Structures are given as C-alpha cells and as structure tokens.
Amino acid sequence: MKQIDKEYIKSLSDQEVVQAILKRDARVTRLYLYELYYPLFKIRYDKYYTDCESCLEFINEIYVYLMTPRLKSDKCYLESFGFGCRLEHWLKIVVENYCRQLFKKRTTIIEVPEGSGDRKPNEITTIDIKSLNQTDVNTMLGQMRNKRYRDLICYRYVEEKTNEETAELLGMSMDNYYNKHKLAKEQFTNILKKEGLI
After folding, report:
1. For the segment 89-98, what is each residue's pLDDT rounded down to a tens digit?
2. Gene3D superfamilies given for it (predicted)?
3. Is-contact 13 81, C-beta < 8 A?
C-alpha cells in the first residue's frame, strides 16, 4: 500500500470507513478490505475450507455477505455494526463466525445418516481410479463443481502424484492441502456413489 493511501485510510474513523463502504466508495473499500486488512482475511482463508480459489475471491465473498440486505430488517450486515468496539475487531469476529457456519454447513451436507447401509465418505481412505473406465473418470471429474477439487483429484489419483507434489502444484500449504484433499475426496466419492460406480 502506498504511503499516501496508508495515511488516508488511517486518518478515517471507523464510522467514516463504514459509511464509505456502505456508499460503495471503491477507494476506501479497496484500501480497507483488500489491502490494510488483507492479513486478517488471509489467516481465515488458510484456516478454513472455502470454495474460493484465492484469498481475493474469499474477500469478495465476505464483502457480498456484509453488503447483502437481511431478510428481516432489509439492512445489510455492515449496517448492524454498532461502534461498540473497533471495526477491525468486529470484522475478525464476523469473518470467523461466517467461516465456522460455512464449515459446519458443509460438514452436515456431506454426512451420510447412520444406519443407511452406506459407508460415510470419510471412511473411504483411497480412490481406486484404475478400476474405472477413463471416460467415466473424466465424466465424474466434470461433475465436480469446484475446479480446485477437480485438479486435486486429477493430480493425486489420475496422474498419481504424491501429496507433496499435488500441494505444490496447487500452491497450498500441507495443512490446507490435507483439509481440501479430504473434502475433494468426499465430493468425488459422493459422485461415484450417486452414479453407482462404487
């Protein structure tokens, strides 16, 4: 961030920042959310599974969440900031809670009820791609909504790269990779089950 921009954004009070973002002031929004507090978002992006391809996409998602009007009040989430604490602290809490809720939702979506006779997806430790027709594999990969998951399954199981090589190709830390690997595998095995291939 340029020194002049840093001085400008630091000269604004929390109230001025909130009002500027609510009025869709592009400069303040960029400086505040995408530059000054980029590290705040990056920590949560690395900590939690998201569908986002990059931290910037994650910030976009949070921005939309903050600016979308609520059903009950017709006010957006950012308008509910009451200035009882620093905006930075409030934003940390909002982002953390948002990620926790998303992660919980995704966990419950992919769980298979006990007693359904099927194994839970996370009980499947390997995917035997070789036992499947290559056309079937390509079709199933095409059904995966998340490109990053598709690439992960392709590198790891079709091209048979190691976990470390796959993480490097995807530009992920190993911790983030193992989290995404588990979720990608669950999504892929769910598709295989739905198509009756396993």
Report:
1. 999 999 988 8
2. Winged helix-like DNA-binding domain superfamily/Winged helix DNA-binding domain (1.10.10.10)
3. no
CA distance 21 to 184: 35
What is the structure's pLDDT at 60?
Answer: 92
Among 157, 158, 155, residue whose Cα is nearest residue 168:
155
Read off the CATH number of the domain in which 181 is found. Answer: 1.10.10.10
Is the C-alpha dihedral spanning 138, 140, 164, 53 positive or negative? Answer: positive
If one counts every other C-beta atom within 10 angstroms of the C-beta of residue 63, the result is 16
Cross-strand partners of 100: none
Predicted TM-score (pTM) of the model is: 0.51
Q: Choose one of 96, 111, 126: the last residue of a domain.
A: 111
CA 101, CA 113: separation in Å to the nearest integer? Answer: 20
| Tokens linked to 143 | 């059904």
Long-range contacts at 174-177 (CB < 8 A, ≥ 24 apart): 175/46, 176/46, 177/152
Q: Structural domain of residue 150, as residue ranges?
A: 134-195
- C-alpha distances (whole Å) from 89 to each of 55, 76, 77, 85 are 19, 18, 15, 7
CB 158 within 8 A of CB 128: no
Distance CA 97, CA 91 (A): 10
